[in-house]
Amino acid sequence: MNRDKSKIKRIFLSPPHMSGEEMRFVEEAFESNYIAPLGPQVDAFEREFAEYVRIPYAVALSSGTAAMHLALRILGVVRGDEVIASTLTFIGSVTPVIFQGADLVFVDCDRTSWNMAPDLLQEALEDCKKRGKFPKAVIPTDLYGQCFDYERILEICEEYGVPVVADAAESLGAFYLTQRHSRKGAKAQSENNNKNSFHAGRGAKAAVFSFNGNKIITTSGGGMLASDDKEFIDYARNLSQQAREPFPHYEHTEIGYNYRMSNILAAIGRGQLKVLDERVKRKREIFDYYQNALGGISGIEFMPEPEWSRSNRWLTVILITPEEFGADREVVRLALEAENIESRPVWKPMHMQPVFNPQIASRKGAKAQNNIEKKTYPCRVVGGSVAENLFKRGLCLPSGTAMTDDDLDRVVETILNCRFL
């Protein structure tokens, strides 16, 4: 094909999709003159969000990373501590560990769900037990909207007395199925009412959500921290507002942050939340469309959905085996880009990132050309080969909920044409 990209419509990976409800709440925010952080829209968004996910307490924040940072701060993570995290994840899931001065232990994923492997987590915790030093927290990621194995991971962590902070940034609208033999019981879009399932993030000490511009619903930028523990969320709310004490003047007994969500962004979030079930439905339809078109092609596999998960299918992800398909992941990605179609490799595992180095024992790194030292941070890794293989072969396909069948056909056609390159 190789047409002039400027003359054909750009298909983005996961662009925002407005519902039409957002402006009503934004206008209410303007009429109330609450523009800066805090206000009635923030209060309402927190309440409505908590009702949807069935986690009783929530605080709206400036980002998912801010939510993770507050969670780790409250759990007492400090320099010299360790935190266990998924290696196949976005870096915002783990940078707050570095903010707190602690060290990371990365755990590989399994092939069943592409999420943290429970057996490897148990192996890591057993090693911690032998060394006499347990991690301050475990951070499993719900990858691409797919629930990790909540029952097993929560049970393992409870055995060792380690709290779980669920990175549910990508999994709003996803559900964990507690009756694994019966997936039909989760067919309803709003599974909050299904006693045999619970929303992603629930059951952990705290759960982190994101409303970044590419998420299934967006506030353009923002996040939410949710927990069953009221004191935990009250403390997070105070820290997110510069830890101001209740005096008429500004009084501070500890250091806080400027992490609150603005009233305007919360208004957008309220409008988006109203169509979340519709967005999940469409994401799953898009996955099915791709799978029907490409599922029978030799050398192409799709991200599996294990028996315990009803994914929101935030992104449709495929694995390409070049020996069978005739082209590798990067050839396909570049062919899509040549047709003005955005796609993206699977997350590069954290233990492969240059900023983390399993080999070093100190925090010093090489100096950059501008003579500013770029630090590298020590880490340990348990496993790693599964995540490395998924990164090598995995490609995220355009999954925007406003995509038309013609858009999807363009993507499919371009991928199929790669077989003859």
Number of domains: 2
In spatial order, strands of the major sheet run 4-2-3-15-14
Q: What is the CATH topology classification name of the largest domain?
A: Aspartate Aminotransferase, domain 2
Query: In CATH's first tier, which class of the largest domain applies?
Result: Alpha Beta
Cα-atom radius of gyration: 22 Å
**Judging by the overall fold, what is the CATH architecture of the largest domain?**
3-Layer(aba) Sandwich
Structural class estimated from helices and strands: alpha/beta
Counting DSSP E segments of at least 2 residues, the number of strands comes to 16
Count of DSSP-assigned helices: 13
Strand content: 5-15%
Compose a concise summary of this entry.
This protein is α/β, with parallel strands linked by helices and 421 residues long.
Structural summary, described in words:
There is one protein chain. The chain is of the alpha/beta class. The protein has two domains: about 5-15 and about 280-345 and about 385-420, Aspartate Aminotransferase, domain 1 (Alpha-Beta Complex); about 20-275, 3-Layer(aba) Sandwich (Aspartate Aminotransferase, domain 2). The chain is built from 13 helices and 16 strands. The chain has helices at about 20-30, 40-55, 65-75, 95-100, 120-130, 150-160, 230-240, 265-275, 275-295, 320-325, 330-340, 385-395, 405-415, and strands at about 55-60, 80-85, 105, 135-140, 165, 175, 195-200, 205-210, 225, 300, 310, 315-320, 345, 355, 375-380, 395. The protein has a five-stranded parallel sheet. The chain has a four-stranded mixed sheet with strand order 1-9-8-5, sandwiched between helices. α2 runs parallel beside α8, α3 crosses α7 and α5 (about 120-130) runs parallel beside α6 (about 150-160). It is globular, with a radius of gyration of 22 Å.
